[in-house]
Task: structure prediction
Amino acid sequence: MPRDGNATRERILGVAERLVTDQGYSATSVDQVIAEAGSSKGAFFHHFSSKTDLAVQLVARYVAADLAHLDAGLAATAHITDPAARVVAFIRHYEDGADELMAEQSGCLYATVLAEREFTGGEINDQVAKATRVWRDAVADLLRAALATRRPDTDIDVGALADHLYTTFEGGFILCRTYADRSAMRAQLRVYRQLVEALLRI
Result:
């Protein structure tokens, strides 16, 4: 029977994501990824031309999952007709799922790879920036609609407020590691929701 090459590729990517997230890109070797994935050099280089190519594909995979995470929140709140209620429910969607998120991953791949100087301004940086802008635009649209109904005279920077959700996620990952407490993510998302509620006077 022919081997499932896609399953091998996914196994390598899964192991690589865990290793890179936990210990950093520079500290993760191809040999370590191969060994922990139970693969071979031949199989690795069949799917990835180099360690850098692995990083590019790894980030592309992470971006797809991240944007699916955004789509899930939008879909879960699409039935809510009141804009203010919807944006609050959207944030609460991630707040309620924070413990599960932290059980699945120990950190954010974005922050890990962007800490590497060699990726600054390159393809990986572009992938992360594009995904972040998709989040920013979607959240800003929700916030703008909500503010129009509750605070039409406000001068709040909606884009910056939308970006603050991104920084809340990133900061939450750091706090979870700092305190060795997975609930820190949920606490930070709760504070962000409360901030938005206060701005909307809910």
In short: The mean pLDDT is 93. The domain at 1-48 is CATH 1.10.10.60 (Arc Repressor Mutant, subunit A). The CA atoms of residues 13 and 61 lie 8 Å apart. The chain has two domains: 1-48, 59-200.
